[in-house]
Automatic annotation (TrEMBL):
This is Transcriptional regulator with XRE-family HTH domain. SUPFAM superfamilies: lambda repressor-like DNA-binding domains (SSF47413). Gene3D superfamilies: 3.30.450.180, lambda repressor-like DNA-binding domains. Residues 36-86 form the HTH cro/C1-type domain. InterPro entries: Cro/C1-type_HTH, Lambda_DNA-bd_dom_sf, MLTR_LBD. PANTHER family: BLL4672 PROTEIN, BLL4672 PROTEIN-RELATED. It comes from the Bacteria. It comes from Streptomyces demainii.
Length: 289
């Protein structure tokens, strides 16, 4: 399957999933007296609301037609897409299909590595494409897990969220964290649907984890630049940490994720205790190099 065909096929699946979540009442259509034979909106109803022909919309879902920008805007409105879902739909429309795809292995950028090394009281992780973990500092290893013991080919954040017991145990709200990380991974799939490593990751997790398989099939997408994580750490207890990322100018596919706690809170004090404990117990501070 070509890159264009893969985009169109995924666009059709995405549209079906989104219309399946809406009811006629939610979009201002009258309900029917009998039982509906389809979940959510019918194709004809989406087409009516978007002011396009049913045949045009059917061809979009079947991957046999490329949508214009006005049609995509109309569908985003009809299907109540948020900003991340709208961006994802436009990615799948094929407008970026000519953009070159880089498949060379990523290495952490030197400036991010230096910045990471200077963060002695702040956990930091550099994520690359597919949420691959490219680098981390000792405090991040103390907070999450010893990334150095994980084979490099398996050092991926989404994979660890689903398959690493120590990571699962950290999150009281694991299900929300897992679904959010998966939704961000699907944005990666839209940017490069032919990436063999991404396909292998999705295939592996789909076979091994029924939750991943079910949530991946829901076609949820998300774009987040900051947020809050709640963790229950085995050494210092409950932590409420704010996270944000810094994108590398030389390689926009690399992002430095940092986690901080509000000064004066118990989480701030506990994070400082963990930093002090890490500084005393770390035998090899360059384990991730």
């Amino acid at each position: 399957m070509s890159s264009s065909d893969a985009h169109h096929s995924e666009l059709g699946a995405f549209l079906r999933a989104r219309r399946g979540e809406l009811t006629p009442a939610e979009v201002g259509l009258p309900g029917s007296a009998g039982r509906r034979r389809v979940k959510g909106l019918r194709r004809e109803e989406v087409a009516l609301l978007a002011s396009i022909s049913p045949d045009y919309y059917t061809r979009l879902e079947q991957g046999r037609r490329q949508a214009s920008e006005p049609v995509l805007d109309a569908l985003a409105r009809v299907l109540r897409l948020d900003d991340g879902e709208r961006a994802y739909m436009f990615e799948l429309s094929g407008r970026d299909a000519a953009r070159p795809r880089r498949r060379i292995p990523q290495k952490v950028q030197p400036q991010l590595r230096r910045l990471l090394d200077d963060l002695s009281t702040t956990p930091g992780v550099v994520l690359g494409r597919r949420t691959d973990i490219l680098a981390w500092n000792p405090l991040a290893a103390a907070l999450f897990t010893d990334f150095g013991r994980i084979p490099e080919a398996q050092r991926n954040f989404v994979r660890l969220v689903f398959r690493e017991p120590a990571i699962r145990a950290l999150y009281p709200d694991w299900e929300w964290v897992a679904q959010t990380s998966l939704a961000q991974l699907r944005m990666e799939a839209a940017r490069d649907p032919d990436d063999p490593r991404l396909a292998a990751l999705v295939g592996e997790l789909s076979l091994q984890d029924p939750d991943f398989r079910r949530w991946w099939g829901a076609h949820r997408v998300a774009v987040q630049g900051s947020g809050t994580k709640v963790l229950h750490h085995p050494v210092v207890g409950r932590l409420t940490l704010d996270w944000s990322f810094l994108t590398c100018a030389d390689d926009p596919d690399q992002q430095l994720i940092t986690l901080t706690a509000e000064p004066g809170t118990a989480s701030h004090d506990r994070l400082r205790i963990l930093a002090s404990w890490t500084a005393r117990s770390a035998d090899d501070p360059a384990a991730d190099r």
